[in-house]
Design a protein that fits this description.
Blueprint (H helix, E strand, L loop, with lengths): L4 H15 L3 E4 L5 E4 L3 H5 L5 H13 L1 H4 L1 H12 L3 H17 L1 H9 L5 H21 L3 H30 L4 H14 L2 H9 L6 H20 L23 H9 L9 H6 L2 H30 L3 H29 L1 H24 L3 H30 L4 H9 L1 H40 L19
Antiparallel strand pairs: 1-2
Length: 465
Amino acid sequence: MTADPYAASSSSTQSDAAHRPYREATDAHGRVYRIGETDRDILGHSRKLMVYLPWIAMMAISVFEYAYGSAEDTLSHAHGWTQSNTFWILSVWVFFQAGVAFPAGWLREKGVLTARTAMYAGSVMCLAGFLALSHLGNVWLAILGFGVVGGLGAGLVYATCINMVGKWFPERRGARTGFVNGGFAYGSLPFIFIFNYGFDTANYHRVLDLIGCYIVIVVFGCAFFFKDPPKNWWPSEVDPLTFSGSGKNAASLAKNPPAVRQFTPKEAIRTGMLPLMWLSIVLTAGVSIFGISFQVDYAKDVGFGPLVAASSMGVMAVINGIGRGVVGWLSDKWGRKSTLVFVIVVLGLAQFGVIWAGDVKSEWLFLFFAFLSGFGGGAFYPLFAALTPDYFGENYNASNYGLVYSGKLVSGLFGGGLGSMVVASWGYDGAYALAGGVSMVAAAIALLLRRPGHPAGVTEPQPAS
């Protein structure tokens, strides 16, 4: 009598499943969750390390964007560059920093590029960027070194850190993503004051070289411990089918339920939601970059002293970073979309407030609206970073968020380079008024966002009592 090969195969499959350290659960939409393995089973330690290490790495690279404006005058004198030259160097940096997110994410998801390798490569490229800014007087070579190479390096680190925390905390990603993203702003604070008070043509080589070495050492050290969770992994303490488990996590899932399935980039685009998110981030990031690029110059133009100018940028950087963590936490309670619209409206109102402060020559009002501008100008980033996997799932998040974040490519051009043209034509008041109007349009677009796969009228599952 011949043995049934199918019976043997079935028996073997059941045996393999019995010995696996995890099980797979499928919800009503057909989405699969890998449950059973703890973070310690996979990493050998708590997944909290996948929050703190990306946060430290993000603080290290924050000097690129948020402190650059404070170094522009010294760089112009040292290398003989015009103000336009220094603005375009930053604009090119923004272009490549944002542009590398999607291809890097695609390579990671294909298994060609690991998180650790992306971080290693990024840290070395960041070092090369600062060495170029220090030693290359030719503006085109500086654009190539700092703008292109440094931008690619910072973009690799940024995208890897944001995606890492989103993968490890799928059930409560708002607060964690906001915390990590905040490091990209307030990590620059010491360098803002160094560039304003301890940076001149006599020491700029040494300062920039040391900053490059600092970045490569910190990022390289953090990268050694980076590791992605398995695809579809879900923490065992929360049931994704009923949302029962830890009270805080269950409440967050009720406000921000998981994506109905794992969307590939093409599928995410076809929902129409990813293009709307892209357009909204183009407009919002453009206003944010405009503020970063021109706030110190506007303060000086109005007649405020160098301490107020530097302090306003310091306030913006600190609140920009802290605000990212706060709104991430709020979005877990209020819902991601509602929090996003609120943040963009605050950013828009702050632009009009800056005009008012300048008109009445009030330094305190100026610092207050710098506070609001800093809050709104950074807080939207972690919200988009958390909203993307909320809508499209975690498995393709590196690519999907890379596409959303690529909107900053366009923002870098009209926020910095084109922003300088508007200032030249309309003055600071006209430019800030335009920025406020653009923010309001972005908020209106954000109101149109909805979670793909849930028709109107379908009630989201609620946490089990």
